[in-house]
Amino acid sequence: MKYTGVAAALAALAVAACATNPVTGQKELNFMSEAQEIQLGQEMDPQVRAEMGVYPDTAWQEYVQSVGQRLAKASERPDLPWHFAVVDVAAVNAFALPGGYIYITRGLLAHLDSEAELAGVLGHEIGHVTARHAAQAYTRQASVGIGAAVTSIFFPEAAPYAAAAQTGLGVLFLKYDRAQEVQSDSLGVRYAATAGWQPSGMSGVLDTLGRISAASDRGGVPNWLSTHPQPADRVTKVADDVAAVEAARPGTRWAVNRDQYWQRLNGLVFGEDPREGTVRGREFLHPEMRFRLSFPAGWKIDNGRQQVTARPAEVRDAMMSLQLVPEAQGASLESLAVGSMQKSGFTRLGGESTRLNGIPAYVGVYDGRTQDGQLLRARAAHIRHEQRVLLLAGIASQSRYSQAEGAFAEAIRSFGPLDASVAAQVKPNRLGVTTVRSGDTWQGIAERTGGLIPASDLAVLNGLPANSGPPAGQRIKIVIAGE
Ligand SMILES: [Zn+2]
After folding, report:
1. What separation in angstroms does the CA of 332 have from each of 103, 167, 352, 355, 389?
2. Tell me, what DSSP letter sits at residue 158?
3. What spacing in Å lies between the alpha carbon of 42 and ligand 1's midpoint?
4. Is residue 475 a contact partner of residue 262, using CB atoms and an 8 Å limit?
5. Which pLDDT tens digit goes with each residue over 380-408?
6. How far is the CA of 433 from the centre of ligand 1 (A)?
């Protein structure tokens, strides 16, 4: 794995060099040369693209590149090999790698209101690179060893980004500290203004992000608020920066480019990408891998990139998990099942080879324990479907197991092939634009447009408060079913 090589290279730097910070001009401890920064970015960029996916829309990619390059030219490090990409992720976030690699999720693009806001976000991320925050964060993380954090596959909350950490992407999810956030905000405001964008775009971004719950986490990627701590005075500080920049350049006609931005938003894929599987009520459909199953009624399904999980609403010690198993060549399904469960610390109590709606599977019952010693029991199906092996497991504490076993077994029995005709109908939701009619409520608009997202999310998407109705005559974003 590439990560190991980079970590080893870093560890070999026995003595940290002292260098000048390009932004502050001050001498500081510097664990990475600029050449090393660039090399690290180059090595990790393909992993980011593979792990998260690149949003397949050339116009969006070129647009974000062009905005980003103009900002980068206005920074203290215009000659880094800057790269900007939209990753195919529904979570609201943006990341920077050392060396000038910047990523923004399509989920964040959907929540922005104008090109000036986009410039604010990209300028902020550029600031993390120019002020060497990204390099410092990586150095810190490499020294504690991100690969070592990987624990049981069944408890994603114990190692929420284990798979990402394994591929070296854990660096993206490191929190910056408050001082670094405030500094990047200031830099973002300055770069945007220097390049001609209305600097208050950054304030608009912080307003909208403040309305998005820090708890939301889709597709295995944490959101902006969980990777970018928001000091209480951050919004005020940005407002001060904006006022100062505007006062220094009176009479400037700042670019906002709201209409052009909204034209681009129309048709942007929104929410989970059904190519990675989609949730319909209690059903999970995977149109590309051509299977379906029903999770227990009333359980909350979380469709992550690494695994799909389902949990009962009230109970903490039971869950179901669906994921791909790296396949051992030539192994029988039974030996593969027992071997891979053993690697996770589970021993077999019993099991049988069977078929789930015609698809070969090995269903076993296993005992194991959590890291803190709690006894677990699992009902796990290893399923061979279209050249892949899938693991569908129900797992519970041993005291809960007998109560949950029926639900686990029923969900496993529901696994089956997905018809081509159904698969062809699964399309992503997209953003649309409409005008608010007099008397409209968020609830009314949500229902009229198919109820694809809750009314409160619709308000957040538009950067407006959910507790008052949308202003009549105003243009708003809506979410519509894909065609
Ligand atoms: Zn930040």
Report:
1. 41, 28, 13, 14, 11
2. T
3. 21
4. yes
5. 999 999 888 999 999 999 999 999 999 99
6. 30
